[in-house]
Amino acid sequence: MWALSTSGGDTAYHHGDLRRSLIAAARDLLRAGGVEAVTLREAARLAGVSHNAPYRHFASREALLAALATEGFRALRKALEEAGRRAEPPERLTALGRAYLRFADADRATFRLMFGGVVEDADHPDLAEASSATFGALRSVVTERESPAGAERDALRAWALVHGLAHLVADRQIDAARAEACLK
Amino acid sequence: MWALSTSGGDTAYHHGDLRRSLIAAARDLLRAGGVEAVTLREAARLAGVSHNAPYRHFASREALLAALATEGFRALRKALEEAGRRAEPPERLTALGRAYLRFADADRATFRLMFGGVVEDADHPDLAEASSATFGALRSVVTERESPAGAERDALRAWALVHGLAHLVADRQIDAARAEACLK
DNA sequence: ACCTGAACACCGTTCAAGT
DNA sequence: ACCTGAACACCGTTCAAGT
Questions:
Q1: Could you check: is the Cβ of residue B126 within 7 Å of any atom of nucleic acid strand D?
Q2: What's residue A9's pLDDT?
Q3: What region holds the HTH tetR-type domain (chains A, B) (predicted)?
Q4: Are B96 and B165 in contact (CB under 8 A)?
Q5: Residue A10: is its pLDDT beyond 50?
Q6: Which of A119, B92, B140, B143 is most buried, judging by how many CB atoms fall within 10 Å of its CB?
Q7: Domain total for chain B?
């Protein structure tokens, strides 16, 4: 009866897309109401399945949150890499900073989930990998022009400045334009 | 029968200390398990009252969280002011930065609650006031030595740097000593 | 004033069962 | 494999009632 539904719309999750549907639903909940609004039962409801079906794809609510954070780190990494490709060394660092700030501004809730401490990296290997790959992309650009003494400290300072600005933007304490003006 | 208990220990909350007991209990829960571990029912249990008694002092769970964040901002402000009093202008800014980082390191969970976006400043007047008073204390020191063009941007940069370092410390991505080394 | 117990609509998670 | 319904122990919040 629904053997044909693979190709058609509403019931696609019956054939392997439930994971994706749940992540999409959870992302909507996150953006609308923050971490505390993300519940397995509501995500299941939005995906049109029973409250129990999510456990076929996520071991726990935290695993679903970890998947959202993982996707966030991948998207941020992609944005950083694209910004890096579009600029040459003197301005490259600024371009990455701008991409970082735009990410935080465009998806505040995901940014907060990524850095809010609700999901522990250590408990979710995919998340740990995505997060360190993102920092690797950032670090390689931040250190590319320096090697003398103090380089490591300068790199950390640059990272902290951008990260702090991003948090202030995500918290709506300053706006994105003022933050970008600080990138020099 | 318990008319005398005002002066004595366990049942003091029956006479006006319940609010304080609940905050203390909530603080323990926050430090032990993060925001999501703070529940009204568990705080009530720790304080030795029925699950319903907290509503005499807090309109909602969020109001209890707001009280914790408010106390956090007051403690941070006090730490910043003391640091400022103990140092003179050239080093004063660094001293404040150090105090900020030590606060984030010593009470990561509270720092995250204060800046994690779970409680909205706008919904809690006391919190809004405590938070802006804290930023005022910071801002006055950050701008005291400069007035020429670019001063506002430099002040924001200094704030963002310290704030970013503090988040990285709270997230355990760098340790407090490395962060302090970045304050110059 | 401050506290209690029962009640309601939610959660996350587990289990036995259906296709 | 993937999904369902019932069940359990939790929540936040409200209400009627006790002292």
A1: no
A2: 36
A3: 16-76
A4: no
A5: no
A6: A119
A7: 2
Place of tokens 């931040």: A142
Which residue range is the domain that position B51 belongs to?
A: 1-58
**Structure tokens, A13:** 């999750």
CATH code, domain carrying A22: 1.10.10
Q: What is residue A152's predicted lDDT score, i.e. its pLDDT? A: 78
Q: Tell whether B28 and B106 lie within a shared domain.
A: no
What is the predicted pLDDT for the residue at B24? 95
Longest Cα–Cα distance of chain A, Å, equals: 70
Q: What is the CATH number of the domain that holds A175?
A: 1.10.357.10
Running DSSP on this structure, what letter comes out for residue A168? H
Q: Is the pLDDT of residue A4 over 80?
A: no
The domain boundary residue, chosen from B42, B58, B74: B58
**pLDDT-derived band at B130, boundaries 50, 70, 90:** very high
Amino acid letter for position B63? A
Instruction: Spell out a b/e string for B97-114, using b for 16 or more CB atoms within 10 Å of the CB, else e.
Output: bbbbbbbbbebbbbbbbb
Could you list the protein residues whose CB lies below 7 A from any atom in strand C?
A 38-42, 51-52, 55, 60-62; B 13-16, 18, 49-53, 56
Residues A31 and A84 grouped into a single domain: no
Residues from chain A that touch B174, judged by Cβ atoms under 8 A, are 156
Query: Does residue B52 reach within 7 angstroms of strand D, measured from its CB?
Result: yes
Residues of A in contact with B149 (CB under 8 A): none
Task: Tell whether the model's pLDDT for residue B149 goes beyond 70.
Answer: no
User: Could you please report the per-residue DSSP string of A62-74?
Assistant: HHHHHHHHHHHHH
Percent pLDDT > 70 in chain B is: 88
Do A118 and A183 lie in one domain? The reply is yes
Last residue of a domain, one of B10, B27, B58: B58
